[in-house]
Specification:
Blueprint lengths: L7 H30 L3 H5 L13 H7 L11 H30 L5 H12 L3 H14 L6 H25 L3 H9 L4 H12 L1 H17 L2 H6 L8 H4 L12 H21 L1 H10 L5
Helix pairs in contact: 1-13, 3-13, 4-7, 4-10, 5-7, 7-10, 8-9, 10-14
Length: about 290
């Protein structure tokens, strides 16, 4: 067997061992949630814990949506709220980042680089440092406890990074394609709509998936900026599974968490090819 460098095989074995260990640490919590979803309450709390459910049951998933005896079911409304907020965030973020990225990629103007850097610096400010001004602003403009308020907030949080990503992606598209279309009679708007937008689809898919995941899993802003049960997303509603005496129903929390993972898995599975392409091409520099 031919080896390119001395000691390369042991080094590769060491790297693979580290990656396997890291993968186990990453996957095991997810598997634990998955397995506990199908366990009964006694088995979920039992010690020593079981790796596989002794009696496979879908009752926990049923109780997440319907629980007439205890009246503690999440129901469908929190998941619907999260879906509305996440879809609205991804659409607005994709639209803003596309036009902003196109402007930064195709036009040169004074202060362009400073403006690009300022987008990232502003977004580095932690949410807890902005929560009081945000709360006052939401009350002033009647955005408190509304879909549009959370959607705009999440879109504003994701737009800076998404703009950087789309700027790099659009920069990788040859400008000659636009020039050829304009020579053939297209206006700038038609060239952007018919050429740049279709070619930017992978980048837009990456932006949409990332912003959807962020809005779907966001908790702090949703907790502070919503108050009614009919508006709260599932991340806040899961707290209802913790009783007044700190009693935690692990089987119900696991079932609710397992259900919440499904939309993210579907999104990544459906847009996987575009997602990887969008991230790699969006990393170019001018």
């Amino acid at each position: 067997m031919r080896v390119g460098r001395k000691g390369s095989i042991p080094a590769k074995i060491g790297v693979y061992c580290i990656l396997v260990i890291w993968a186990l640490f990453t996957i095991m919590p997810l598997y634990w949630v998955f397995s506990t979803t199908f366990k009964n309450p006694e088995e979920a709390k039992g010690f020593p814990p079981t790796l596989f459910p002794r009696s496979f049951s879908l009752r926990n998933i049923y109780l997440v949506f319907f629980d007439p005896e205890q009246h503690r079911a999440l129901g469908f409304r929190p998941y619907l709220n999260s879906l509305i907020i996440a879809l609205g965030t991804s659409l607005i973020t994709a639209a803003i980042s596309f036009f902003a990225g196109f402007g930064f990629a195709r036009y040169r103007f004074r202060g362009r680089e400073i403006l690009l850097l300022s987008l990232l610096f502003i977004n580095m400010l932690p949410l807890m440092a902005r929560v009081i001004p945000l709360f006052r602003m939401f009350i002033l403009y009647r955005l408190y406890d509304t879909y549009i308020g959370l959607i705009l907030l999440h879109a504003a949080s994701q737009a800076p990074f998404a703009t950087w990503l789309m700027r790099g992606y659009i920069w990788s598209i040859p400008k000659d394609l636009e020039d050829s279309a304009m020579i053939d009679g297209c206006t700038r708007g038609k060239a952007v709509r018919r050429i740049i937008a279709p070619l930017s689809a992978p980048g837009l898919a990456a932006v949409a998936v990332l912003s959807f995941r962020y809005a779907w899993n966001e908790f702090t802003a949703a907790l502070i900026l919503t108050t009614s049960e009919s508006m709260r997303p599932y991340t806040v509603a899961i707290h209802k599974f913790v009783g007044d005496h700190s009693k935690i129903d692990w089987h119900l929390i696991s079932a609710a968490s397992f259900i919440s993972i499904i939309p993210i898995i579907i999104a990544f599975a459906f847009f996987q090819r575009y997602f990887v392409s969008g991230l790699t091409r969006g990393a170019v520099k001018d």
